[in-house]
């Protein structure tokens, strides 16, 4: 693997999932692979799971880990040809070039604006690092994608599937704040690659980017959509068409134990209890959220392993 | 040791103090004990000594150390059954469960509100981690206790005691800000367990929780109380009865060289010079503050060692 | 080396430069030199290059690295004899003494006020650490000096010099913000020690401290000064005489490809494009800014190596 900014970077998905599961059984098997190499975790936005799981995965492989909250440094300039006489102190060309002097791998987290659709879709931060850094880049959640989360989710589904072709439903849920589409986008792309019966349910107006959902069936009737589901992945996202807007906070879309039935419940976390999902589900035995969080480590570790093997 | 959230968790105090002193002589003797294990240091409040000494202690034992300032992540919800549609993004149930996926030990610092006595006494943050985390919890100073500081203080007293049963006095001092009772509480509990002649002196109204001070003698006359003291531990705290309030800033309670006489001076630091204690004391030969700070490392190390041995 | 707070601390400059270049070829040759030792990186101000390069250098030598943003802790008091009843919570005497309990080397970054010339020239923060810490101190950029940057620059010049006595010009450039003189000061002092033909060019009123520039020739005519230069080091600084003030933002002082000619371009970064220097220069083949940034690691590493060898 040369980088991991999008799911496409995985050459062999089923092999990669198997490899992750075997790393989970023996996390320190390759503890010398990263020796004398350094990964830099670069955060433009706050992080809990992604930071700790990626740091742990890197240490498991013997990598040195350096962490930088960009806000502890200064504002970066991303526009070409600007006269930098305002608030930005360093251009991404220098920043990415310099960071490449200190790190063998750079992992970046940069959320969308949710106001400028074009800019967000251009992945201006992540793609600038890809363009100007001279080392492999890992996406720790960008404006439009969260491929490490999607890989952890794929690992989790393959661990808990009881049928050859499980039914997986992505169900929108209400949320008081406007959230990115990144997690939903990457989950959709990942499910399209797995041998699952996949569909999406959300209120009208919450359609994700059609270039991502493609032929995936979308059902505006949650109850119908959830029937006989094996895995229900619940997530809020703001509108893509009416970009970044909250069109509905309809409580009827909250996930409940009754709706879930015997299906496994999945969520990337953090989750707002009794808004996105009721307590009974999270406190019940069908919740896989902790297993998903745990698999974040091994998703990151298998990606780092494959990148290190090609360094 | 299964955890270290309170002094009671130490099964054999005198043995533990001896063990800490021997670790001080050879800090790296057990440098492989923590191999392939990770400690997470979680800060809800700022820290200098506690953070660096605990990090160093963990590294001395070969532990991987991950540090997270919770404020760099987001607000946690601690109430049960809440509808999380306000400012909290993640419930402690998920947070503690998730963090337990990445760490073998979690150390937590969370100060009191000093406004809600009941809530502070319930140790809502620390006890929530105890309840929902699946790994051992260490108290890096909670609302009502600072057991790592108290252990470092006990080590220091046992190193510098010249008599079989030294006289130790805890003396309140003025301070411009309302401070927690945590350090004083834990010092009192620790002294009650040591073979020392212990008493407390403070202005009326500054009585600590009677369930903690128990039969410990309290003298409102500082001069009387300090007579023939071997160790004088100076500390400010806000009122417990009139909870969190500053009842006095009486400069006469500041510790001076004259009052101290030949006694050893102790303070957990940080200390405000010429408010809590005059320069002459801190700059004199009877001050043990640096030795106390140094022993923070070995207090943390002996606790981590005993926890690792039971993991 | 007992410390590295100023360039004078280097006993043999040409040997040190040679040693740095050999470390660059084999960064892990001395990876056990720092074993069981800890460096603390202490930041009063934000940092990108200095933090990452110093952290990397320390890890290359097997040092444990602890990083503390002082602002995550609390305000330190530097005045003697103060009654600390205001905003400062801990005196540098205690802080430096305590930090010396946890670290074998302390590296400090503390920028100038640019308002109080006397205080800045006294290097009150750095010199207080020198005075009260009991371990070696490294200057990661102080009020008036940036000796690690100057050493990296010297390494870079010695790597790229094509003539026995290259012509090096330090050229002031405009900047929207008032910047310290630290980088310029240390570069001047370093060039005075190398076998180079060195001169400075800047608008009138931007003279650096005459006790630093000494007999170094200063030319107010940039075009004249740049003639036949081999290396042009561009940097903005605020006025020293009219302390901390911006006297000019004259765009004609911006470095251009035309002015630069065949000379190598140097800058410590971060740099504001098309204000300090035009895109064509940074994007051209004569720019050494990334090589300078890379050499920050080996400047720090050779300093740490020499300090560790005397610990």
Automatic annotation (TrEMBL), chains A, B, C:
Catalytic activity: N(2)-succinyl-L-ornithine + carbamoyl phosphate = N(2)-succinyl-L-citrulline + phosphate + H(+)
Molecular function GO terms recorded: amino acid binding; ornithine carbamoyltransferase activity
A Pfam family of this chain: OTCace
UniProt keyword list: Amino-acid biosynthesis, Arginine biosynthesis, Transferase
Pathway: Amino-acid biosynthesis; L-arginine biosynthesis
NCBIfam families given in the database record: PRK04523.1 (NF003384)
Protein name: N-succinylornithine carbamoyltransferase
Species: Ulvibacter litoralis
């Amino acid at each position: 693997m040369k980088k991991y900014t999008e799911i496409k970077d995985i050459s062999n998905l089923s092999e990669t999932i198997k490899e992750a599961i075997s790393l989970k059984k023996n996390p320190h098997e390759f503890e010398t692979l990263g020796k004398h190499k350094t990964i830099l975790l670069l955060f433009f936005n706050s992080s809990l799971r992604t930071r700790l799981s990626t740091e742990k995965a890197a240490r498991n492989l013997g990598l040195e880990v350096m962490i930088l909250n960009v806000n502890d440094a200064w504002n970066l300039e991303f526009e070409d040809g600007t006269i930098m006489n305002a608030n930005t102190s360093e251009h991404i060309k220098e920043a990415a070039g310099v960071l490449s002097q200190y790190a063998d791998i750079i992992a970046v987290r940069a959320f969308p604006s949710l106001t400028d659709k074009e800019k967000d879709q251009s992945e201006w931060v992540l793609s600038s690092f890809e363009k100007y850094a001279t080392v492999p880049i890992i996406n720790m959640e960008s404006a439009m994608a969260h491929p490490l989360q999607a890989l952890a989710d794929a690992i989790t589904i393959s661990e808990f599937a009881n049928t050859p072709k499980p039914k997986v439903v992505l169900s929108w849920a209400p949320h008081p704040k406007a959230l990115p589409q990144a997690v939903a986008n990457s989950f959709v792309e990942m499910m399209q690659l797995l041998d699952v019966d996949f569909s999406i349910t959300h209120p009208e107006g919450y359609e994700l980017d059609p270039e991502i959902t493609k032929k995936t069936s979308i059902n505006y009737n949650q109850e119908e959509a959830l029937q006989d589901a094996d895995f229900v992945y619940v997530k809020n996202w703001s509108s893509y068409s009416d970009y970044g807007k909250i069109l509905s906070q309809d409580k009827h879309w909250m996930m409940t134990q009754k709706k879930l039935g015997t299906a496994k419940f999945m969520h990337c976390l953090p989750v707002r209890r009794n808004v996105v999902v009721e307590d009974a589900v999270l406190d019940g035995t069908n919740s896989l959220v902790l297993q998903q969080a745990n698999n974040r480590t091994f998703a990151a570790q298998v990606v780092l392993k494959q990148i290190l093997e090609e360094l």
